Amino acid sequence: MQHSAEEQLVKYLTDAHAVEAQALAQMRAAPRIAADDRLARAFREHLTETEGHERTLRARLAAHDADPSRVKDVAGRGGGWGMILFARSQSDATGKLTAHAFSYESMEVATYGLLGAAATSAGDVETAAAAAAIGTEERQMGKRLASLFDVAVEASLREVAGDDLTAHLDRYLKDAHALEQQAEQLLKVATRLVDDEGLASIFESHLRQTRDHLRRVEGRLRARGTGPSRTKDLALRIGALNVGGFFAVQPDTTVKLSGFAYAFENLEVAVYQLVRRVAERASDPETATMAAEISGEEGATAESIAGTWTRVMGDRMAALSDAGARPGAP
Ligand SMILES: [Fe+2]
Ligand SMILES: [Fe+2]
Ligand SMILES: [Fe+2]
């Protein structure tokens, strides 16, 4: 009767294993990119924790007579390198690396929040406990990174030495504008794709908020005598189309989007935390205040999304159990 729910739980375990395979690649490369010892140390410490997460998942998979999926793991590792290459190719590698690393930890928090809910629905107490324990370490790593935002900003300002602070802040604001445009595209699609009313209404109200953020960021750019970057906006808009297409073909769209959106909102949290700090150093208090306010709204949205995980996953697993229980069901 639990057959398909059991299969789905194993699938979530292999997904989580692929996420950790990618995390391992990132934690090995990140200390070399981070232009500050304290950041490098945080990454090295989390590498040890990440190795533990990988072993735990392997053990939970073995308990279900399953192996990590090699195909997914290879894709995961490739993605890990992709992110690192992205960070390295940019000026301000340390700032970008820190924001992405913070978002990646959020993605892991979502992965384990959802895995724990799936395990609980399937009656797998050990996996639920493992997910809770790993999730706690991912949250702690996220907090450690957040406590190093000042360090990251100082390091990235050293990297752009010679370049003036004004241009640096303008670039951050243009990046934020492009990210908000991507958010707008994704939210428009996501609202239509999810089959959970609560999640859809969070997306809808955050779509309105996102349009307000776009106006506010553009307002600050204009006040500073510049404007959004068409190239950056366009690049991320195309990225959003690809991501939208990816989610549309997933059998598990609502669950996947509830995790992805949480990580995306936390990427915005980190970006605005960095904008705020750069703006303070560039003596632009209006921009600093705006960034702090928007960051708070992104964070609150992320937490509302996290509040849907138990229900979204419970519904998904219950549907699978019902299908498995129906006479003649595969
Ligand atoms: Fe992990
Ligand atoms: Fe992690
Ligand atoms: Fe947002």
What would you note in describing this structure?
- The chain is mainly α.
- The protein folds into two domains: 1-161, Ferritin (Up-down Bundle); 164-330, Ferritin, core subunit, four-helix bundle (Ferritin, Up-down Bundle), CATH 1.20.1260.
- It has twelve helices and no strands.
- Helix 4 (93-122) packs antiparallel against helix 6 (149-159) and helix 10 (253-281) runs antiparallel to helix 12 (309-325).
- Bound molecules: fe (ii) ion (3 copies).
- One fe (ii) ion is lined by residues 183, 206, 210, 265, 268, 298, 301.
Task: Describe the structure concisely for a colleague.
The protein has 330 residues and is mainly α.
Keywords:
Ferritin; mainly alpha; globular; 330 residues; 2 domains; binds fe (ii) ion; single chain
How many helical elements?
12
**Biggest sheet layout:** none
Structural class: mainly alpha
Question: Could you name the CATH topology of the largest domain?
Answer: Ferritin
Looking at this structure, what is the CATH superfamily of the largest domain?
A: Ferritin, core subunit, four-helix bundle
Shape: globular
**Which molecules are bound in this entry?**
fe (ii) ion
Please state the average pLDDT score.
89
Termini separation comes to: 10 Å
> How large is the share of residues in beta strands?
under 5%
